[in-house]
Amino acid sequence: MPADAAAKGMKLERYASGGAMLLLLRRASGGKIVSASSHLLFRATVLATLGLVFLFTFHYPSLLSRSFSLSGGGGDGGPAHASHRSLLMSSSSSYSASAAYGGAAWEKEVRKSAKPRKDGGIAVLVTGAAGFVGTHCSLALRARGDGVLGLDNFNSYYDPELKRARQRLLADRGVLVLDADINDGLLLEKLFDLVPFTHVLHLAAQAGVRYAMEAPQTYVASNVAGLVSVFEVAAKHADPQPAIVWASSSSVYGLNTDAPFSEDHRTDRPASLYAATKKAGEAIAHTYNHIYGLSITGLRFFTVYGPWGRPDMAYFFFTKSIVSGEPITLFRAADGADARRDFTYIDDVVKGCLGALDTSGKSTGSKSGKKSGPAPLRVYNLGNTSPVPVTRMVAILEKLLGKKANKRIVTMPSNGDVPFTHANVTHAAHDFGYRPTTSLDAGLRHFVTWFVDYYKLKLDIPKLTKPAGADKPSSSSSSSKKKKATAMAASS
Predict the structure, then answer these.
(1) Cα dist. 205→87, 123, 283 in Å?
(2) Domains in the chain, start-ordered, CATH in brackets?
(3) pLDDT of 21 higher than 70
(4) In 93-184, where does DSSP find H-type helix?
(5) Is 119 helix (H, G, I), strand (E, B) or coil?
(6) Residues with a known catalytic role
(7) Omega of the bond prior to 240 within 30 degrees of 0, cis?
(8) Of the ranges 44-58, 220-234, 331-345, which one carries the lowest mean pLDDT score?
(9) Membrane-spanning regions, if any (predicted)?
(10) Can you give the pTM of this predicted structure?
């Protein structure tokens, strides 16, 4: 066939679009037009693909990386938060760490960490172990010879590196903290198969009152679904059932104005979603105690502070702002009164947590063993009993840091905050000898000393002077000489 005849004939070409191969017949005379159109179509496809990749990366960063970092501060002087999607996925993902954790070496490590080192010691699973209260309690339990195994999902609500530093601190003391989530029922079952835990100290939760307005689903996933996950495994899988001590919150008192707050006061008017999830947790605890015989103790923490604390707490980010010269925001109630908080030092809270563990009583719904009547169901306040104006707390920080704060005073918004908190601890004092001893001045000195050391700042902090018999640090505190060897961590 002549060459020109072949050129005028029909010829077969293959085009690729989105992975599908199309066979098109075209006439040679129209080739240039079709060729130009195909180039435009190809470019448009590439641009559209790049746009989709960008949008996917922006909206779902947690799918591309398991690590997150926080930088700078929020507009209100608090920490900037990662996307709530990453927090929600970290607590409700279908991925199970039980698939990754296993083998003889891993099982040996788990058993070693959870094994008591003294006769009569208890074996405790601590959830939220790399958090503020969790780290302190884990260190105190280990220091007295109890077995401790930790679990934490290291989410990005605040800087995960601080949690990793706490994890390293615990590892130095022989406490293993697994990177996993409380909603991972398969892993929890595996752990209870490996270790006959006598107790669970459940401190894992999505913390923060104001952040609940931005990411409500994370609070439900962690504080409600996560609590149910722990109760389910303890009630239906563990044998014998462990006694459970868990972190409720003073926020359950909500709009209550009677002071001091007593466990006998009403708690049906929460002022925030965070408070509502904690109140829901107390109702859920009642159900599992009633139906399954779990021994459950809820602890209502009142504004816990101290070394290795949470960067989203006012005392922490106020300290950071004062040092860096950034302004801080102070709230006043509608009647002009300064906000007041029952600031409770971490060592006092640790003593309360251990006291609650030691007096918790046994669960009675185990498959094996004799039933011994109803299991204990208890709720206690753990506070300092001495509310202090937040402006007083700032004045103490200014004195310790040798620098004035740039204060901005505004009326308290309707974002879940309450004008004051004030704890009545009569029940805890009666049942396990809870007596807070640390003043705000002394506690903030301990915190600032740790803060300066942790962030490598060049500041001279006044030496701590103590009246005779007062403010003796517990084994979980960080003194000027031992803060790296004895410090702590979780929620208020």
Answers:
(1) 11, 21, 16
(2) 3-59 (no CATH), 102-303+346-386+421-437 (3.40.50.720)
(3) no
(4) 104-114, 132-143, 160-172
(5) coil
(6) 274
(7) yes
(8) 44-58
(9) 40-60
(10) 0.78
